[in-house]
Amino acid sequence: MGEVKYILIHHEKCPREAFHYRIQSDGTQVALLPEQHRGQHPYSIGIVLDGNFDQEKVPTGILESLKNLVLKLKLKYPDAKIGAHRQIRGDKNTSCPGRLFPLRDVLTWSRTGLLKERDEFIVQDIESQYGP
User: Fold this and answer.
1) Count of CB atoms within 10 A of residue 74's CB?
2) How do the domains of the chain map onto residue ranges?
3) Measured between alpha carbons, how far is 124 from 50 in angstroms, rounded to an integer?
4) Is CATH 3.30.420.310 the right assignment for the domain spanning 6-130?
5) CA–CA gap between residue 123 and residue 130 (Å, rounded)
6) Using one digit for the tens of pLDDT, what is the confidence trace for 19-57?
7) DSSP state string for 71-89
């Protein structure tokens, strides 16, 4: 697949296929496609969320699981940008991941909370390796 440039969020009513991860309605993360394989969009890791977020709000459990997965992916691919399917050139006719998906909140978190969580994870990892 090459360099990962994007982490793209979709919802289950998206007509696309070949996602790397699915987050189920209970927050469970399921790997669908190896990260090194190309999904729907070049240079991207695709995450599909259970639910139709044109008609319903995203459950808190799905959002928390999404943030957890994005954190793991950003540790592997620190330069990858987080975005929504609807932001991709050529796919402007879609609302995916849905009009009710809180994209602005997720992007704000990615610029603030994600960094704090990443740093906490790194400190815990180091302390677990070198602590008493």
Assistant:
1) 18
2) 6-130
3) 31
4) no
5) 11
6) 999 999 999 999 999 998 888 778 899 999 999 898 999
7) HHHHHH-TTPEEEEGGGST
pTM: 0.82
Sign of CA dihedral 105, 72, 75, 123: positive
User: Please, are residues 43 and 6 in contact by the beta-carbon 8 Å criterion?
Assistant: yes
What are 99-123's pLDDT values in tens digits?
898 989 988 888 887 777 777 877 8
Q: How far is 121 from 119, CA to CA, in rounded Å? A: 5
Residues near 17 by Cβ (< 8 Å), separated by ≥ 6?
40
Q: Are strands 21-23 and 29-31 parallel, antiparallel or unpaired?
A: antiparallel
